[in-house]
Amino acid sequence: IWAGVTNFVGTRLLGGTADWGELLRTLGFAQAPGLLGFLAIVPILGGSVAVVLSVWTLVTGVVAIRQALDVSTGRAILTALISLAVVIAVAVAVAVVVVLACMQMPQIIVLTYDQAALAAGDSKRFFVLAAARGILIFGGLLIGLELAGMLGALLGLGAAYVCAYPVVVWLSRHQGAWDPLHDTIFALTALVAATSILWLHWGEVQKLLP
């Protein structure tokens, strides 16, 4: 991804001249310091090694961009920084979308229950559900944000939907619309789907950790 963004920024925005294959080869060689990444597991040196390798890789990347695009060192540095910023922004956006989609699953399961109350003209109970859900969401977002940043806020949103479920059951049972078998089946399906999605995108999700 970084190579593709670098190619676009360097050739279209900053006047570099290189084909995709040439840039891909040079950037590939620039990642060679990463082969020493196993040293980061050394207890005492781990943090320092990770920092040194990151800086080293960035420097070799700048050299590779300068040679491949035939631009000045300043333009190579600018290309590298812009490209990295775009890649990081995309990775964070993907992580937010993934976690947000998983946290919305509990709400989707009970999506039509509150509509049953409106259809029956029971605005009082509908208001109670809306108020309880709003308070729980506000509290979940606030507490989650305080404890774990953006990821905590997203998890707090999901927790709020789960905590609101008893109120949804109270409302839907009054209307005779509650279907526990439906909820159980789709809750298990949502749990499996969310676990699988988070596992597949765990690398991106980790970027949201404080």
Give the gist of this structure.
With 210 residues, the protein is mainly alpha-helical.
Topology:
Layout (H helix, E strand, L loop, with lengths): L1 H12 L6 H11 L15 H24 L3 H31 L1 H5 L3 H7 L3 H41 L1 H11 L4 H21 L1 H4 L5
**Tally of strands:** 0
Topology order in helix (H) and strand (E) letters: HHHHHHHHHH
| Average pLDDT for all residues | 80
**CA(first)-CA(last) distance:** 24 Å
Largest sheet: none
Low-confidence stretches: none
- Computed over alpha carbons, the radius of gyration is 25 Å
Helix content: over 70%
- What proportion strand? under 5%
Q: What would the principal axes of the Cα set say about the shape?
A: elongated
* Number of continuous helical runs: 10
Structural class by SSE content: mainly alpha
Task: Describe the overall structure.
The longest helix is centred in the C-terminal third of the chain and has 41 residues, at 123-163. Helix 6 packs across helix 8 (165-175). This protein has helices at residues 2-13, 20-30, 46-69, 73-103, 105-109, 113-119, 123-163, 165-175, 180-200, 202-205. It is mostly helical and 210 residues long. Helix content is 80%, strand content 0%. The model has no long low-confidence stretch (mean pLDDT 80). It starts with a helix and ends in a 5-residue tail after the last helix.
